[in-house]
């Protein structure tokens, strides 16, 4: 009977641990006044398009304790954002494109604006030009070589409602809601022209580009489109998801999704024909995200949330893994946590899910019987490994 009880407890602990997250832990967060719709990152600062509260400038030099450095109040709803040098570009709804100088993060100031005929929803930068998804008005291209005097150079209407835009090389890729994926050749900034499209059986919300592929966030699917020849796109894989994905980011073989009804999800696309979800963290209404190293910066209904993906093979930046130092793959621990002797003098720590260090670890046996059951992380100089402690 006692063995059965232990087994039930272990299963219960595992179930609780899996309810809200898998291979992802929350590092830090900051509530801000509006409804965060867009996020971009540059150096130690995250920039948030925060709806009616405008642009928020967040110091993330300490990811576990982000703090607001400054803000700029917008004349309309601040949505998509992108950054280049000392300037943040804000897709500002009916207030068009706004350009904010953030050289002094504590006092961001508007230096330029460009009137647009549609509702500015998203913005992506490429060189001296900004590409703006303007809903019913389609795509607009703006010359930003002088941030104080931006000017429209060209536009291309789309049949649906341009929600998000990604730019690579001479092409812009539009998530066009009912219009699916629209591919615009913008090599001639004065006369961008659609060269292909890929229809979808459902609404298209989010889009990003990496390595000759476009990743589309549809109403209930992640779709992967090969655009190595932009004039002939074709779908290579898909994954059913629980909700719409407006924000997507690619890092290596991983795609990160901000799903408004299902939280932040991590998908392995090493085999694009068979993408597989390998991590998630449930949060309320995430709408955009950006990835840097092992950290994910996510804009949600309350503000900024910072996560760490620590799934199999996650390596601290700047290091290559040494197989002899890996923590054993087994993650269920009863009383004793055993680390390989090959760790030698390398320091290791055991960290709780809320970021507290509860003990230093040594090669060999470590007595964890005094610790409360739950999820912890073994942090070595090269990797982070989740363990579940159960007594």
Structural overview:
- The protein has 1 helix and 36 strands.
- The chain has 391 residues and is mainly beta.
- The chain folds into 2 domains: 2-6 and 315-389, Sandwich (Immunoglobulin-like), CATH 2.60.40; 24-309, Methylamine Dehydrogenase, Chain H (7 Propeller), CATH 2.130.10.
- Strands 1-26-25-24-23 form a 5-stranded antiparallel beta sheet. A 5-stranded mixed beta sheet has the order 30-36-35-32-33.
- A hairpin with a 2-residue loop joins strand 11 (122-126) and strand 12.
- The longest helix is centred in the N-terminal third of the chain and has 19 residues, at 2-20.
Tags for this entry?
disordered N terminus, Immunoglobulin-like, 391 residues, 5-stranded mixed beta sheet, Methylamine Dehydrogenase, Chain H, 49% strand, mainly beta, globular, 5-stranded antiparallel beta sheet, single chain
Could you provide a short overview of the structure?
This protein has 391 residues and is mainly beta.
Domains (count) = 2
- Structural category is mainly beta
CATH architecture of the largest domain: 7 Propeller
> What percent strand?
over 45%
Distance between the termini: 15 Å
Low-confidence stretches: 1-19, 313-330
Lateral strand order in the biggest sheet: 1-26-25-24-23
CATH topology of the largest domain: Methylamine Dehydrogenase, Chain H
Query: What general form does the structure show?
Result: globular
**Average residue-wise pLDDT:** 87
